[in-house]
Structure formats: C-alpha cells, structure tokens
C-alpha cells in the first residue's frame, strides 16, 4: 500500500542519513587528523552507530509482517552479527573500542549501507539507475567477507579482556554447579560467523543474478 511504501521510504531515509553522517564524519576526521583519528572512532560516532544498528532490527519485523519481500534468514544473520559484535564485543570492552579494527569495521558497514539505503529509497519510488543497481548488488560480494574477517579479528582482540575481566562469564552456586565461560562462547560463535558467511555469500550471488541477470536491470520488485 501507499502508506507502507511511504513508511519504508522514511525508514530508509533515516538510515541513509545516519550512515551518511557516520561515513562522512569518518572521512573528514581522517583527512583532518590522519592516523590519529582511527583510535577514537568509536567515541566520536559510536552513539549514532548504535542507534542505526538498533533501528535495523525493524527490518526483521518488516520481513515477518510481509511489507518487505527480502529473505528472512540472510537478513537476520547479517543484523544479528552486527548487533553481537557491536554491543556485546565492542561496547562492553573499552580497551577494544580504541583498536584500529573498529574503524575498519565501521567503514565497511557504512560504505555498504550508504549504497544499500540509497538504492532502496529510489526503488521505493520506482527509480532504478544501472550504475547504482550494479553497485548495490556487486559491492557487497567482496566487502561482506572483509567485514566478517574484521568482525572475527575484533572478537579475537577482545578475548584477552573477556578472560581477565570475566565479563559475561557466569558461575552459578550449588546445587546447580554450572558455569559459562564467555570466551568459549565467543570462540564457538566464530564458527557460526564463518558458517553463516558461506550461506550469505551464496545468497548475495543469487540476488545479484536475479536483479542484474545478463546485464539487464530488473525493473520490477519481486
């Protein structure tokens, strides 16, 4: 309906503004302060980044309610990956926030999202530009695996801090005698991360083929 389409357009516009602000801020700060700007990336843009990622949870609801025809599992995996790494790994360990990998990760996320939300906004209005369509369905194929590697590196960097501080590790008293050592949970999650990456890459290739085909743009949303 027109109302739902307008709602999705406003949502995409909000996400575009947020990610564009982050992306522009990162570039300006790097051009102004050089390498020194990388260490405090999280402190300068972390709040807006967290807001944008929390808003992205709405995309799962959009798919569940049927107003967005995207596939649920690939989008769910991508969103939960970011939520876990951003809120559980980076946000909880101040020592990790100053690492260069956080800047690399934010750069990859926002580059992908600026392109994706720009494409989505125009698609809501029935506007399709060949260069933008090609970029939207092609850029994610090399950049998504790079972002997964950055996520995995951020998790590995955080492990010593989770081990020394005991963050999220739980030891229940008797009679339960049960404990959860959170670094082990993160190590197991690395396996899930790379397994999910293989599935999502296959989905990205199928999406690209469906929308670009042999070079023709799919001018009608499925």
From TrEMBL:
It is found in: Endoplasmic reticulum membrane; Membrane. Catalyzes the third of the four reactions of the long-chain fatty acids elongation cycle. This endoplasmic reticulum-bound enzymatic process, allows the addition of two carbons to the chain of long- and very long-chain fatty acids/VLCFAs per cycle. This enzyme catalyzes the dehydration of the 3-hydroxyacyl-CoA intermediate into trans-2,3-enoyl-CoA, within each cycle of fatty acid elongation. Thereby, it participates to the production of VLCFAs of different chain lengths that are involved in multiple biological processes as precursors of membrane lipids and lipid mediators. It catalyses: (3R)-hydroxyhexadecanoyl-CoA = (2E)-hexadecenoyl-CoA + H2O; a very-long-chain (3R)-3-hydroxyacyl-CoA = a very-long-chain (2E)-enoyl-CoA + H2O. This is Very-long-chain (3R)-3-hydroxyacyl-CoA dehydratase. One of its GO terms (cellular component) is endoplasmic reticulum membrane. It is a multi-pass membrane protein. Keywords: Endoplasmic reticulum, Fatty acid biosynthesis, Fatty acid metabolism, Lipid biosynthesis, Lipid metabolism, Lyase, Membrane, Transmembrane, Transmembrane helix. Belongs to the very long-chain fatty acids dehydratase HACD family. Coiled coil: none annotated. Signal peptide: none annotated. Pathway: Lipid metabolism; fatty acid biosynthesis. Its EC number is 4.2.1.134. GO terms for molecular function: very-long-chain (3R)-3-hydroxyacyl-CoA dehydratase activity. It holds the Pfam family PTPLA. GO terms for biological process: fatty acid elongation; sphingolipid biosynthetic process; very long-chain fatty acid biosynthetic process. The chain crosses the membrane at residues 7-30, 42-64, 181-201. InterPro entries: Tyr_Pase-like_PTPLA.
């Amino acid at each position: 309906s027109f109302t739902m389409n307008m709602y999705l357009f406003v949502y995409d516009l909000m996400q575009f503004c947020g990610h564009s602000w982050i992306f522009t801020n990162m570039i300006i700060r790097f051009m102004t302060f050089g390498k020194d700007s990388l260490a405090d990336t999280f402190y300068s843009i972390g709040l807006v980044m967290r807001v944008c990622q929390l808003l992205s949870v709405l995309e799962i609801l959009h798919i569940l309610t049927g107003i967005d025809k995207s596939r649920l599992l690939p989008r769910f995996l991508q969103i939960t990956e970011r939520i876990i790494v951003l809120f559980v790994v980076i946000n909880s360990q101040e020592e990790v926030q100053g690492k260069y990998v956080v800047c690399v990760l934010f750069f990859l996320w926002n580059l992908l999202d600026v392109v994706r939300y720009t494409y989505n906004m125009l698609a809501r209005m029935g506007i399709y530009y060949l260069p933008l369509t090609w970029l939207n369905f092609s850029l994610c194929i090399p950049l998504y695996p790079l972002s997964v590697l950055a996520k995995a590196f951020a998790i590995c960097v955080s492990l010593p801090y989770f081990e020394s501080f005991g963050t999220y590790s739980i030891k229940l008293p008797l009679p339960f005698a049960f404990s959860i050592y959170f670094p082990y949970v993160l190590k197991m999650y690395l396996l899930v991360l790379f397994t999910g990456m293989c599935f999502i890459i296959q989905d990205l290739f199928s999406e690209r083929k469906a929308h670009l085909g042999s070079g023709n743009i799919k001018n009608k949303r499925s």
